[in-house]
Structures are given as C-alpha cells and as structure tokens.
Amino acid sequence: MVPGPKAAYNFTRCKVGKKLWRPKLEFDLSDPYCRSTKFSYEPLHDEHLAHFFSRPNNLNYLLKVDLITSDMNVKCSLRDYNEYRKYLRQVHADYIKRELRKRDRLIVERMALNFAEKQARKEVKKLKEKEKVANERQRYNQEQLLQVELRNRKLKERARKTMKRFKLIKTIKQEERKLMNNKREKRTEQIRQKNKIAAEINRRKVISTLIDMRKADKARKKTKDKRLLNMNQKKQKDIEEKWKRKLQFQEKDIERRKMILQRIDNRRKKFIDSYNEKINRETAKMKRILDNAKLFTNCYMKRHLLDGRKLICCKKYCKSNTVLV
C-alpha cells in the first residue's frame, strides 16, 4: 500500500483488524478462478494481527506512514475500493437471491398446502358420496333380495303346478303310446302281407324275364353266327377280286415295260449307228489332214536342199512355182 498525498480524498473499506472478505453461506461455483473479485491477503485486515496493530507504537507508525486514518480506518486505492464495492454488491445480490428463493419456497409450500387441503376436501366429499352410494346400494340390495324371495316363491308355486301338469301329460302320453303301438302292429301286419304278395309277384316276373332273356340270347347267337358267315364269305370274295385285279395290273405293267424296253433298244441302235458314221467321217478327215501335213513337211525340207526341186514330187508345189516364175 502506497501512502497518498495530503488534502486528498481517502478511500477506506474497514477498520484495522476487521475482515474484508466474509465467508459465503452457500457453496458457489459462479467464479471458481476468482476473476471478478481477487481475494488478496491484506495484513491490516487480519483478525489475528489486530492485537499487534492495536499497540500505540504501531498505530502511531501507521498514522505517520499515512496507511490509516484517525478513525482507525485502513486506507485503500480507488481500484481496491471499486472492487470491494463490487464484492459488496455481489454479496447483497446473493442475499437478495437467497431471500427470493426462501419466498419462492414459502409460496410453493403454501401452494402445496392449499392444494393438499383442496385434495383433502375433495377426498372427504368423495368419501361422503361413496358412503351415500354404499347406503343406497345396501337399500337396493335389500329390495332386490326381497324381490328375489318373492320371485322364488312364485317360481315354486309355478313348479308345483307344472309338476302336476307334467304328471297329467305323462299319463295322457302313455295312453296315446299304447294306442299308437296297437295301430303300428296292425300296420306292420298289413305291410308284411303286402310284402309277401309283392315278393311272389316279383319272383314270377324274374322267372319270366329270365326265360325271355335265354330265348333272346339264343336268337342273338344264331344271328351272330349267320352274320359271321356272311362276313367271312364277303371277305374271301373281296380278297379273290383284289388278287385278280393285282394280276391283271401286273400283266399290263409287264407288257408296258416290254414295249418301253424295245423302244429304248431301237433308239440306242439308231444312236450307235449314227455315232459310228460320225466317227468314221472324222477319222477319214483326220487321215487326209495327216497325209497333207506329211507331204508338206517333206516338200518343205527338200526345197531348202541343193537340187531340191528335182526331188520334189508334189504337183501343187510345181504349179505354184511356175506361176511365181
């Protein structure tokens, strides 16, 4: 702490030996790194050093150095003063918040109590209504029990009457059954007689039908035999006719083939004769050409020799030579 000049404003926070920073009542994590307020240690505000600084020698020295005022207030700088004011404002704001929370809690508790009272009143009303309903149900059940007893009595009386009626009905039914049995026996006897008569009639009909069936079977067999004979005869006739037709067709075919072969032989002979004549003509021509070629070669060879003209025997050459000369 540096002493200030004389006749200047003095900023103080607390007296000597009193704490600046008060302990917080609640655990606060709003400023864990102490950036808003720096809780620096100052020995003049230490409680444990209050006895030391209260000595007269030390007080005179502090007054002389101008660290405290005559009222025992510790001087401070403007920055420290503003920080302390900020700290006090924050403490006051925390106190106000705490009080507001208490009020809110009280309000919530009052609301809860009021709500609980209302719920209790509603439950009381419901219980009263339930009691009324239970009483009404008891009355209703008692009335129903009385009605059930009356109904049971009526039903018992009806049951007695019905039992009497059933007994009468049973006796009547037994008599009716006896009559029905007698009628059934009579009907069964009549039906038996009718069945016997019908059986005899059916037996006679069956016998007559069997006789007719045998006669019809014999007639059918005869007709079948005749039909088979006729069919076999027709088949044999058809086979013979087919065989004759085939023979006639084969004979005609053989004659036609013979005629065709004769014509082919005649044509072949004519072709061979004409071909031989052509060959003979061509051979004669070729012989003439060969003879002429031989004469020409002999004459040509002799013409180029000495005294070759005397040796030439070709008349054609002599004629041509005379003409040239």
From TrEMBL:
Residues 110-192 form a coiled coil. It comes from the Eukaryota. InterPro entries: FSIP2 (IPR038891). Keywords: Coiled coil. This is Fibrous sheath-interacting protein 2. It comes from Cardiocondyla obscurior.
